[in-house]
Design goal:
Number of helices: 4
Structural class: alpha/beta
Number of strands: 20
Largest sheet: 12 strands, parallel
Radius of gyration: 25 Å
Length: 273
């Protein structure tokens, strides 16, 4: 964004701020003393009591995720959009290369009815599918928890174990290595094939690679995002014949017209020799 673009953006910002201030003043003058401006206080990483999250610098945590309290996340792991990992009354441990997919919830139990301390421990190269719920359980290395599955207190999923999508695994159940369990309540379905066991590791690797792409995108600054938006508009496909049938004339605003020698992926104008 050039100097003119920045100036326009700044003017627009202050106009909006002035409008909001006038709205608040008007509400108060009308006697609406219950008016309160609500600000989002979302914090991706949040301490609780004397506990603070510990996240590897190589891990990806989506900006809309919540990592709270005594939570450890290993290298190359990924915590996706909308996830909540709440380590308040006990601790949560996530190993290396593990992916906790969108909207999943992980919590702990201080103790169960038998007085047993129940943290949540997730090993290396584990896949936890979208919207899964894990509570005070253990998921060993290279295991797979399907979308929407629920693991209750004391559950243990052994290495290369698989919990099917939507399954409810009751308290203190153990999913043996190489087996698929599913249903509500979960029960043994069948043995895993060698190809399926290999897929578990491949799934974890795929998510580690995908997380790097999302991390890079989330790290982009405002100017870089606006520049790429302009490039997409400039090089978007336009069906001129279809537009002419509809009588549509598409014009690119002057501030979005970029030099022809800048192509997608190349942000530096090329100088002719």
């Amino acid at each position: 964004m050039g100097t003119l673009g920045k100036a326009i953006y700044t003017v627009g910002f202050w106009i909006r701020e002035t409008g909001q201030a006038m709205d608040r003043l008007g509400s108060r003058l009308q006697g609406n003393y219950y008016f309160h401006e609500q600000l989002s206080r979302h914090r991706t990483l949040m301490n609780i009591f004397d506990k603070a999250p510990s996240v590897s610098k190589d891990a990806f945590v989506a900006p809309s995720a919540s990592i709270i309290g005594d939570v450890q996340i290993g290298r190359a792991s990924s915590i996706w959009y909308g996830c909540v990992l709440r380590g308040d009354v006990n601790h949560i441990s996530v190993g290396s290369g593990t992916n906790i997919q969108d909207n999943s919830l992980i919590h702990v139990a201080k103790t169960n009815l038998k007085g047993k301390v129940l943290p949540t421990v997730i090993g290396d190269n584990v896949t936890v599918g979208h919207s899964a719920v894990l509570h005070g359980c253990t998921v060993e290395d290279e295991s797979f928890v399907g979308m929407g599955a629920t693991l209750l207190d004391g559950v243990v999923v052994e290495k290369h174990g698989m919990v099917a999508a939507g399954a409810l695994v009751r308290q203190d159940m153990r999913i043996p290595s190489g087996e698929v369990w599913g249903g509500n309540p979960a029960k043994f379905l069948r043995k895993l094939t060698e190809e399926e066991i290999a897929f578990i590791s491949k799934s974890a690797t795929n998510y580690s690679n995908l997380a790097q792409v999302h991390a890079a995108e989330n790290a982009k600054g405002f100017e870089e995002i606006e520049f790429e938006k302009a490039l997409r508009k400039k090089h978007a496909h336009k069906d001129e014949e279809y537009d002419s049938m509809l009588g549509v004339v598409r014009e690119v605003p002057p501030e979005l017209i970029l030099p022809d020698n800048i192509l997608p992926g190349d942000k530096t104008p090329k100088v002719a020799a």
